[in-house]
Specification:
The protein is an all-beta fold and 96 residues long. The protein has strands spanning 13-23, 26-30, 36-39, 53-63, 85-95. The chain has one domain (3-66, 80-95): OB fold (Dihydrolipoamide Acetyltransferase, E2P), CATH 2.40.50. The chain has a 5-stranded mixed beta barrel with strand order 1-2-3-5-4. It is globular.
Length: 96
């Protein structure tokens, strides 16, 4: 299932399987197609979970996690992240 393949699941409770990874914007469940699904409110995984295959359940949302980058009149680009990300709210998880 590609990243766009999750759109029909937004705002629903889902159970996903993937790899627990730490990313710049927080902890993610990295899906088989490399789509990161952020775990709301979790900055990073505990050492004993990071890198492990897990199953996570929660409400799938789609939202911006950081401001969009801005280009000034001189062409300098500010830090930011374009677009919206998948986020799992109210998540619980265990090893798969």
């Amino acid at each position: 299932m590609s990243g766009n393949g999750f759109e029909h699941l937004v705002d629903q409770e889902v159970t996903i399987n993937g790899c627990a990874r730490d990313a710049f914007l927080g902890a993610v469940v990295l899906m088989a197609d490399r789509t990161p699904i952020y775990v709301d409110g979790l900055a990073e995984w505990q050492d004993d979970i990071e890198g492990e295959d897990i199953q996570a359940t929660g409400i799938l949302r789609r939202r911006s996690l950081a401001p969009d980058p801005v280009v000034d009149e001189d062409g300098a680009v500010s830090h930011g992240v374009e677009g919206r990300n998948y986020v799992l709210e109210g998540a619980s998880w265990n090893r798969a």
